[in-house]
Specification:
By secondary structure, this protein is of the alpha/beta class. The chain contains 15 helices and eight strands. Strands 3-2-1-4-5-6-7-8 form an eight-stranded mixed beta sheet, with helices on both faces.
Length: 404
Amino acid sequence: MSTLLTLAGSCRRSSRTETTQLLSLPTWKSRALCPVSLQQPEPDFFAAALYAAHSADKQPLAKADRATPAPTRTEILRIFICPLLRPIAMSSKWQASDIPPLTNKRVLITGANSGIGYHTALKLARKGAHILLACRNRERGEAALARLHTDSPGIQAELIVLDLASRKSIHNAAATVLSQHQPLHLLINNAAVFAPPTRQETSDGFELQFGTNVLGHFALTALLFPALQQAANDSAARPRIVTIASIAHKRAQINFGDLHSSQSYSPMRAYQQSKLANLLFTFELDRRLRATNSPIMSVAAHPGVAHTNLFQSGNYSAFEKTLRSLFGHAIGIVLNSDSEGALPTLYAATAPNAKDGGYYGPQGFQEMRGHEVGPAFIAPQAADVAAAARLWQVSEQHTDLKFL
């Protein structure tokens, strides 16, 4: 080894000019100076180094080694230098940087004041989209709007006050958007209530999770559908409705006999049911859009397990809020941050390869984490066409809204 290092050092001294030239050239030129065989991950490096060490120590070589011609000092130098000059291979995985330009595209995102919703808004705004931040709390929404402008000066964004747990608020928010007489190119149904410890109700008497996560987004989609149709008429790009589901749907069932958990309430079971309902809605919406030959796409996504304020929002004791905060930070370290969790949403919303009725999520362990986005697992109950049609009818009855 010492001989090899000494030899390499002598090569560097004798070829200092060439080394300087190599290192000062752009990567593609320095790569071109390397022999083709040395640009590939072959064992030439080790064979030549072994030959040099044997020759310097004047030790006899094996028969197979003697057949190899002795490399020159310049060749040995290139063997050592070329691997350092090779360009770093870029990942072929879809990334946020692959989002196409979105200039003049209008995007409404529910729950956009924090977590995945905020990072989705930020990345889409950086691509030129005009963002409508649909937030329940005006003060928090204005803070998020200010943060957006601080993070990316010059972006276009505005606040829409929207409480998905209130039919009146949903109608008012939709009326505000429609009064602008502008197309809506992308609707992202992102907001959610997660497992409050005790059963709560919306202002209209629905169980809070089902009323917000399912019925609230059904009503909003129905009311904003004219703006989505306008975008379909005005642009060659297909508008999309993206609904955020969850891996929690895998353990869920739709209890049509007690949709609002009036008879028995389990925080997690109610959340799981709402996320299964989100998938059933996505797929039924896709079928109805296809039946009318609409260019509008219905797509779903899930973030895996990500650190968002979903784990902290709600009426909890100080101790439980602290515990949930610590749990959320642990998730951010071990699994996904809220920024990373936004990637499947962004893929579903903008990727050219996203399919009608597709469902996308991270491809890491059990779909809980990972930087690669791909088709997500769909539990058999989420593919139940009859249940999806029945849920659609129930949603129409609960919201007094019909579309498609």
